[in-house]
Structure formats: C-alpha cells, structure tokens
C-alpha cells in the first residue's frame, strides 16, 4: 500500500517553490505511527555483584568494631561497679573505726553490736585486721579468717599505724578484689586505699 505525501521544497533564497510527491511504502499494521509504537526497552539501574560485596564488607567491618566496643564497655562497667562497692565498704569501715574512739566515762562501745568487731583493735597495732565482704558489701566469714569464704568478693585490710594517743588514732584501709588474692603477695584486679586519722 503506497501513500503519497506532498511536500513543499523551497529554493535556498526565495526561489521558485516546487511541489513534489514522495511515495512511502507503509505496512498495513501502521507501526510507523509514533503513537502506536511500543517504547524501547530501558535498562533498569541496579547494583552489581562487586558493589554488593563491597557494601557487605563495610557492614561486616562496622559490626566487628561495634562488638569489640561492646566488650570494652561491659568490662568498664563491671570495673566501675566493683570500684563503687569497694568505696562503700571503705566508708563502712571508716565509720566503724570512728565509732571506736575514746568514749566518755560510763559509756560502752556499741561497735561490737553493729560493727565488724573492731572494738579495741586500735591498740593491736602489730596485727592488721582482715575482713571479707560479698558483692552486696556485706561482711562474710569471721574477722581475720585465714582463708577467704566461698561467697567473698572483696578483702579489706585495716592496718593500725601506731598506738593511739589521747587525741588521734591513725590507720590505713585497703580494699581489694577478688578476695582470694592477697595484695601482699599478688597484684589484685583492683585496689582502693585510704588513710584515716580519727580525732579522739
């Protein structure tokens, strides 16, 4: 089927215009019409295998770093909790030693009822006192026990520096953990020290 298209052809500079006929062979289906033509297949953008592998590698590296930081954070938190408990134990011992100062005539010390049994130990300066505590800062076992009890987590050692005089009593207090480690022979995992001077 042939269709005739009339086109206008003009000269370059206003010359005589000619009309000519151009015959175009058209298929009967009419696919030459742009409105009826199907759009060309477009390439869909996506990730290549190399890009996906690279992205997974970066994600894995970040996860490994985060897991490493998690372990460090947990260890720091545990050390902080042990430090806080050791400071609480030290405060209780200092309060107990302050309760064992010189009393007015006619008054008896209440330290033996509510304390750790340190009453009168200011005079025994040659022998330090050792007290064991649990993770909840509660005394466990006997005073000056030779071995740490099974539930002991902290070891407190009270060293009296010289015999008390009429005005001052002086001592050092060391709280270390774990309780099974003796700080005199082995370096413990943690240690807190303080010095006390009680005005009597």
Tags for this model:
2 domains, 27% helix, 5-stranded antiparallel sheet, 2 helices, alpha+beta, two-stranded antiparallel ribbon, 7 strands, 200 residues, 26% strand
How would you explain this protein's 3D organization?
The chain has 200 residues and is α+β, with helices and mostly antiparallel strands. The protein folds into two domains: 2-36, no CATH class; 77-101 and 111-199, no CATH class. The chain contains two helices and seven strands, in the order ββααβββββ. The chain has helices at residues 49-98, 111-114, and strands at 2-9, 18-25, 129-133, 139-140, 154-162, 168-177, 190-199. The strands form two sheets. It has a five-stranded antiparallel sheet. Strands 1-2 form a two-stranded antiparallel ribbon. The longest helix is centred in the middle third of the chain and has 50 residues, at 49-98. The chain starts with a strand and ends with a strand. Residues 4-12 have low confidence and may be disordered.
Write the layout of secondary structure elements.
Layout: E1 2-9, E2 18-25, H1 49-98, H2 111-114, E3 129-133, E4 139-140, E5 154-162, E6 168-177, E7 190-199
Antiparallel strand pairs: 1-2, 3-4, 3-5, 5-6, 6-7
- What are the secondary-structure elements, in order, as H or E? EEHHEEEEE
Poorly predicted parts: 4-12
The chain-level mean pLDDT equals: 79
Strand order of the biggest β-sheet: 4-3-5-6-7
Oligomer: single chain
Helix- and strand-based class?
alpha+beta
| Helical residue percent band | 25-40%
What is the gyration radius calculated from CA atoms? Answer: 46 Å
Number of strands: 7
Largest sheet: 5 strands, antiparallel
The domain tally reads 2
């Amino acid at each position: 089927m042939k269709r005739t298209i009339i086109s206008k052809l003009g000269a370059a500079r206003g010359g005589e215009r000619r009309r000519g006929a151009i015959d175009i062979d058209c298929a009967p289906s009419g696919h030459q019409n742009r409105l009826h033509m199907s759009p060309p297949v477009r390439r869909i953008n996506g990730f290549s295998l190399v890009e996906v592998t690279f992205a997974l590698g970066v994600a894995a590296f970040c996860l490994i770093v985060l897991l490493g930081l998690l372990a460090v954070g947990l260890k720091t938190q545990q050390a902080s909790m042990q430090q806080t408990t050791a400071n609480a134990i030290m405060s209780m011992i200092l309060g107990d030693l302050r309760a064992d100062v010189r009393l007015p005539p006619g008054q008896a010390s209440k330290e033996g009822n509510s304390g750790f049994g340190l009453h009168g130990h200011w005079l025994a300066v040659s022998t330090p006192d050792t007290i064991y505590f649990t993770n909840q800062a509660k005394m466990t076992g006997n005073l000056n026990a030779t071995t740490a009890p099974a539930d002991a987590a902290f070891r407190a050692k009270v060293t009296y520096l010289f015999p008390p005089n009429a005005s001052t009593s002086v001592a050092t207090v060391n709280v270390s953990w774990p309780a099974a480690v003796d700080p005199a022979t082995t370096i413990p995992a943690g240690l807190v020290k303080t010095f006390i001077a009680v005005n009597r």
